[in-house]
Amino acid sequence: MIRNLPPLFWKITPLVIAGMFIVSGLGLIIFGSVTYNKTVNEEEDVLGFIEAGFKTGSTLTISVGVIDFFIGLFGLGVALLNARWLHKVYSGFLIFMLLGNLITFYTLTTSANEELREITNLLKDAVQNLYGNNTRTDGQEFTDLVNKLMSETPCCGFSGNEKENIFLKTSWHENIKTKFSTINLPDQCCTTHSDKCREATDIADARNAGHVHPTDCINELYKDYGRELFAVFVEVTLSTIMQIVSGVYTVLLLMYGPETKD
């Protein structure tokens, strides 16, 4: 059945596939460049988490775009020259690119997890050192931004662990316990302004009881970061599918297609 396909099929299909790679590559390069340079309002991105996701995701998007564009140009040249040896080289190149995609998947997963761990530690250190610290010029500004984030998201805490009350390790708690020894959480953590929240000794129980916002702020911020990385996973997956389709077509052409030039 494959041998009976019309000659036009064997001429048009590689051009269409190459065109898809070129258009996809250009689209990803443009999209990645735009998002890389996107500025995020400080009020929307208190601790630079969203911007970090943009930068990481955009760099990978541009990389995938460059690869797709190059594959498309290579495939276009192979289709126009229609030389058998070029088709074989192109097949080998696609296999190499597929292996590259697998490595990209692995590297992206590993590096993303490591980067998230590093950012989590940086955020925890920043909250512990700056939140409620009036002895530093940037302490009040940082405190205001964190309070705004907790109120509007809503969320509570910056440890990535809903059971840990990081505020007990801050200057804010050191200062407030001199006046109110029973206060353990800032008002912005509370679903309602009640002592059951502010004086909670076990933040996990207070969350379960509905007195404290249910999620840690770092986990909420991960969602924005994760969306950018998920987009890259989709891009790499689609690129892989296109490469497989192109590779299958090339093999079929060599096995069943019309004669090609040596």
From TrEMBL:
Chief site of localization: membrane
Cited Pfam families: Tetraspanin (PF00335)
Membrane topology recorded in Swiss-Prot or TrEMBL: Multi-pass membrane protein
Location in the cell: Membrane
InterPro entries according to UniProt: Tetraspanin/Peripherin (IPR018499), Tetraspanin_EC2_sf (IPR008952)
One of the record's GO cellular component terms: plasma membrane
UniProt keywords, alphabetically: Membrane, Transmembrane, Transmembrane helix
Entries under PANTHER family matching the protein: TETRASPANIN (PTHR19282:SF544)
Name the UniProt record assigns to this protein: Tetraspanin
Organism field: Macrostomum lignano
